[in-house]
Automatic annotation (TrEMBL), chain A:
This is Uncharacterized protein. Residues 86-112 are annotated as: Disordered. Residues 89-103 have a biased composition (Low complexity). It comes from the Bacteria.
TrEMBL record, chain B:
GO terms for cellular component: membrane. It is found in: Membrane. One of its GO terms (biological process) is methylamine metabolic process. Residues 4-131 form the Methylamine utilisation protein MauE domain. Pfam families: MauE. It comes from the Bacteria. Keywords: Membrane, Transmembrane, Transmembrane helix. It is a multi-pass membrane protein. This is Methylamine utilisation protein MauE. The chain crosses the membrane at residues 40-65, 72-96, 116-139. It comes from Pedobacter insulae.
Length: 112, 154
């Protein structure tokens, strides 16, 4: 017990102050952060030249053929990304783009 | 300035950096998962690193604050910071065909070049801390030289 008390007394107080300052920065950043609008994109691996496709106004149709025109399919396959949301005005190809945590995985197929 | 004061300053700065890095990830865990998936790793490794890196950072934060564990924590910090710096350096070469985001709190506003300099600064701090702790540099000699010069000539 005495050893524990001595260890607590020897703690780096300067470090604690810096950590409190860091906690303040984290808190202020999260408290005043505005939630940005997200846009859904599909990763079209079947047409590599297209790459990511903006899915605004394009509905999902995973039903049986024939598929409705201008829809997409997301065939369940955990090996690759099918759709992901990115912040509005930032295309998925931008290095700053970050897909959100709820990335939908599967094989993306566009129905023209 | 006393050796112990400099060591407290260095270890405190590195501890604050790790604390900030860890908790800015944990406070928005979903976003951190996305940020990690944006990196060059496979999904399995990305999922592992999402919780492993903050765990190591929090552990090091505590270890850096106590004199008994400071030395080993400085070694571990040097290793971790060097690994991050090496990763940034490799990513900057474009060898992976794309440059992922430099995510993580205030760091995401930095370019990779600035991020590299930022990391190198903390790597240098860890090296300096270890050098003072292990007596690799002539800290005491410099200190005594200064004292000798201040002595009056007889």
């Amino acid at each position: 017990m005495e050893k524990f008390k001595n260890a607590l007394k020897s703690v780096n107080k300067f470090g604690l102050v810096l950590i409190l300052a860091a906690a303040g920065i984290i808190f202020s950043q999260s408290a005043f952060k505005s939630k940005k609008a997200m846009v859904l994109w599909g990763k079209d691996s079947t047409v590599p030249s297209v790459g990511w496709r903006n899915l605004t106004g394009i509905a999902e149709d995973n039903g049986e053929a024939p598929h409705d025109p201008n829809t997409y399919r997301c065939v369940s396959n955990l090996e690759q990304i099918c759709t992901a949301e990115f912040e509005d005005s930032t295309p998925p190809t931008s290095p700053s783009s970050i897909p959100d945590g709820d990335t939908n995985q599967g094989e993306f197929i566009y129905n023209p | 300035m006393k050796k112990e004061t400099i060591l407290k300053f260095i270890s405190g700065l590195i501890a604050a950096l790790f604390f900030y890095a860890a908790f800015s990830k944990l406070i928005d865990y979903d976003k951190s998962v996305g940020e990690m998936r944006n990196q060059i790793f496979s999904a399995t490794i990305a999922n592992l690193l999402t919780w492993l890196i903050p765990t190591i950072e929090v552990t090091l934060t505590f270890l850096l604050l106590f004199p008994n564990t400071r030395k080993i924590a400085l070694w571990a910090s040097l290793f971790l910071l060097s690994a991050f710096t090496l990763y940034i350096g490799v990513v900057m070469t474009g060898v992976f065909g794309r440059i992922p985001c430099s995510c993580g709190g205030i760091l995401k506003n930095m370019s990779y070049g600035t991020h590299l300099i930022f990391n190198l600064f903390f790597v240098s701090l860890a090296v300096l801390g270890l050098a003072i702790e292990n007596g690799w540099i002539l800290y005491n000699r410099l200190f005594y030289l200064k004292k000798e010069r201040s002595l009056p000539d007889n």
